[in-house]
Amino acid sequence: MSGLLGTFVGIVSGLYSRELRSAIELSARHLRFTSTLTVVLISTIVTSISSIMFYRLIIRRRWNGSITRGEIFIKSDAVVNLTSDRDSVVGRRLAYLEAKRPGDDLVVFLHGLGLDAHDFRPYMLESKFHCISLTMFGFNVEERGDEHYGPISLDSHINLLMYALERFSQRYGGKRLTLVGFSFGADMALFLSKVKPEALARLHIRKAVLLDPNVNRSTTTISSKISRVDQEQPLAQLVAILESAGNVAEFRYLSEYLYKITSKNFAQIQRHAREVVDEWPDDTYDRFLDLLGRLMGLSAGVHVVLSFNYESLFNGLARGAVARGLDTSDLECSTYDHFELISPAHLKERLEGLL
Question: How is residue 78 annotated by DSSP?
């Protein structure tokens, strides 16, 4: 326990570092928060992040053997469908976390921009389902400074995702496969329906659960901001992203993303962000509904959950779905915020209610 507390104290000390406090305080002044509110805001953010980490540390000590780390070695057969000769991936590995459980279901989690497999670990520890959480190529913290994991195109990421899913399907062919994508991960599930439709159909997806997917250009908030950051001198522009928040909820949303993104290979994430933004050309729902219709046709069912961050978009989206003859019973507007959609409480409630 003393070692655990020492680790926790180190984390909290890091979170209360002068640099982090200065960035938050500067942003708060631009948002015209009072000094008292600024202190409360800092405390809230740090307490939130610290509590999550402390929870993870306790669980890791208690359930160390229940989740294992795995790797998929990328062989030459992976490059057959890659469109860019500059995307070097053969000989590298895709990392994932796995929690094996008895039962007929296999749930595969796809993370958001700048996140990784570990963001689903708290839920995996207590889930009744056999779970695998995949980290996209180059998104591991340890790959940050590794030149072998340089930025690759969105198309190559999509093909590598299918490469991994096919191997999971081959290994556990007797289980029903469910995909759960969060934010950018939900987009990836949608993009599979366009780029790899035949291969996706062969997986016989039982359910695709899309948590806060992009539905048009207006929802690419963090991707749009990250895509414009100068890689050579990012600090001032990262602080400017915090300053762009219109309210405390948005400030917290941006803070959590930047906290995660800045620990990763920024060039990899920025290329992702730029190409994802390009996939959403305007503020209509047509692109999303086209992809949603494709995915519905290639799986046994799709369930979409929007957080309350995007509740103002839900009515228009639902009307667009009705106009296309899509089943709106699988469109849901949640009272949870963006990151709460991947909390153990929400995932347990949602997945056990759907599967």
Answer: G
